[in-house]
Design a protein that fits this description.
Elements lengths: L6 E5 L6 H16 L3 E5 L13 H6 L3 E3 L19 H4 L4 E6 L7 H4 L2 H7 L1 E7 L9 H15 L5 E4 L9 H6 L1 H11 L3 E7 L12 E5 L2 E3 L2 E3 L3
């Protein structure tokens, strides 16, 4: 993942794996370059599985977590806090954005389009071909176009995250290789990275772009993985 961009956005449909990826990449970025790293949870669509659930782990590493007000509460529509401005007011900060859900979740992102463009950004489509709404490259392309339309921003790459949760094997990843090739060709976008659990060792030919081994984070009695 390039570190020259101040803003890195991870967007995709619910269940694509954005939250786990943002959590892991924020920790990796902080370890690699130090400085100010912000993990911003912009998911106002799915209120129970979000980056805020890994707050303790992130803050212990010196990462600032910004999350919707009333996140993980019983309130149906959390709102983005005013401290979102920190992403743009701190020129030395690197911010990773977890943008929720689908095109509806990208509406919040569109509020900051001008500031994001001025700061410089990468935006990655996180896609899991084993999820119901992204089982074909064509279906993934529909989501890509919807998010671009609503956010007014353009994707710069794809993060391939083929998984079946805790049932994922090396073969699960290998079986998704053709999907990744077809989606890249259809979209004209490079596969920036392939994400997989650190306990797995996928075949090199099934890994496109950078390999991103992922750790899971537990909260109480459930696992943050497919959000």
């Amino acid at each position: 993942m390039r570190t020259g961009r101040r803003i890195t956005i991870f967007a995709g449909h619910n269940g694509s794996g954005k939250t786990l990826i943002v959590t892991n990449r924020a920790l990796a970025l902080r370890a690699a370059i130090g400085g100010t790293v912000i993990a911003a949870d912009m998911d106002t669509v799915k209120p129970y599985f979000r980056t805020v659930d890994a707050r303790e782990e992130l803050e212990r590493a010196g990462i600032r977590v910004i999350a919707p007000e009333l996140a993980n509460s019983s309130v149906d529509l959390p709102t983005l806090p005013g401290e979102m401005r920190a992403m743009f007011d701190q020129p030395d900060a690197h911010s990773l954005l977890d943008v929720g859900g689908d095109d509806a979740g990208a509406i919040a992102l569109g509020q900051y389009e001008a500031e994001i463009r001025r700061a410089g950004y990468d935006m990655f489509l996180v896609v899991n071909p084993y999820r119901v709404f992204t089982r074909t490259p064509e279906a993934a392309m529909e989501i890509l176009r919807d998010i671009e339309r609503v956010s007014k921003l353009t994707f710069t790459g794809i993060v391939h995250n083929p998984n079946l949760g805790v049932e994922t094997t090396e073969q699960t990843i290998a079986d998704a290789a053709d999907f990744a090739r077809r989606l890249s060709a259809l979209s004209g976008l490079p596969i920036a990275a392939t994400a997989f659990l650190r306990t797995l060792q996928p075949a090199p030919e099934a890994v496109f772009g950078e390999p991103w081994p992922m750790d899971m984070f537990r909260r109480k009695d459930w696992v943050i993985y497919d959000t």
